[in-house]
Design brief:
About 75% of the residues lie in helices and about 5% in strands. The chain is mostly helical and about 300 residues long.
């Protein structure tokens, strides 16, 4: 009976990382540097795209989606993680934990959906360049972006909604952060429905994501092989390589996180994989896409010249 007794306390304890005292401040400042760098780079790209009318194009609107998602997803995770690195008492309210889990899963699902749209954009640009402006209009991209965010929010709302209905008999989050699996493990009730929906959510998201990326890249590769045009091949390699690298990093760190939830003997590896899933793409997105995109590079150089940060 005691095992199934529900808890009325709203406070939860987060397990966090077991850090030696000599590594506490180095880890804190490392996380602080990572967080500030991703804020600076993503907000910088957002501001540049918003202010420069010449960048009001479909491809750059998609950059904005990624940057907004990266800033929100990491702001929910990293500041609290840094506070817990410094503190020996790691507590969080249940409602805060639910909000963190909601934003964390929205970050992951929205990242997949946005990268699918970016793959479609690259396919149209490479395989149908003369029709690109008529197909990928600003209105189309805004509509696709709204669908990506809408689908993500609905899927995650159901995921978290099924968890918050459960009563709690435990108060320790066996993780360094809050996610759905950590939340429903607080309950002693039957979580069969949560597991089934979680499996459906994961399979649906990864199937759509991997299927969409595979189909678009196979069609791009087929067009390049048929036409045997060196300029087309170079353009395809330049525009698709960065997208594919970021997608693979996000895909495998996400896979690792999901798989390691089934293996409790490797808790620290799971925590590290989850943090990498957030911070690596968020830091690489503006750098890689900025370097790969000529218009963005030119605008950044112009801004730096106006600010006299580089010689004219």
């Amino acid at each position: 009976m005691e095992k199934n007794a529900s808890m009325s306390s709203d406070m939860l304890e987060i397990q966090g990382f077991d850090i030696s005292p000599e590594f506490t401040y180095p880890l804190f400042f490392l996380l602080l540097f990572v967080y500030l760098s991703l804020l600076f780079s993503n907000i910088g790209v957002l501001a540049l795209i918003i202010m420069e009318k010449s960048l009001h194009q479909p491809m750059y609107f998609l950059f904005c989606n990624l940057s907004v998602n990266d800033v929100i997803g990491n702001t929910v995770l990293l500041p609290q993680l840094m506070a817990h690195v410094l503190s020996t008492k790691r507590f969080i309210t249940y409602s805060q934990c639910v909000v963190q889990a909601f934003h964390s899963h929205t970050f992951g699902s929205a990242s997949h959906m946005i990268l699918i749209i970016m793959a479609i954009d690259r396919y149209v640009a490479i395989c149908h360049p003369l029709r690109y402006s008529s197909i990928m209009t600003n209105r189309t991209v805004v509509g696709l972006s709204a669908v990506a965010w809408g689908v993500s929010l609905v899927l995650v709302s159901v995921l978290i909604g099924l968890t918050v209905r459960l009563s709690r008999c435990r108060s320790v989050i066996q993780n360094a952060y809050c996610d759905n699996a950590s939340l429903f493990k607080l309950s002693c009730e039957n979580v069969f429905i949560n597991n089934i929906y979680g499996l459906f959510f994961t399979v649906l998201l990864f199937t759509c994501s991997m299927g969409g990326i595979f189909i678009t890249y196979m069609r791009i590769a087929l067009i390049c092989w048929i036409k045997k045009n060196k300029e087309l091949n170079n353009r395809a390699l330049q525009t698709c390589a960065s997208h594919l690298v970021l997608y693979l990093i996000m895909l495998w760190s996400g896979f690792l996180t999901i798989i390691l939830h089934r293996f409790p003997d490797y808790p620290n590896l799971r925590k590290i994989a989850y943090i990498l899933f957030h911070v690596v793409p968020a830091n690489l997105n503006p750098v890689i896409y900025g370097l790969q995109t000529r218009s963005l590079r030119v605008k950044i150089a112009e801004v730096l010249q106006r600010k006299q940060l580089i010689p004219t």
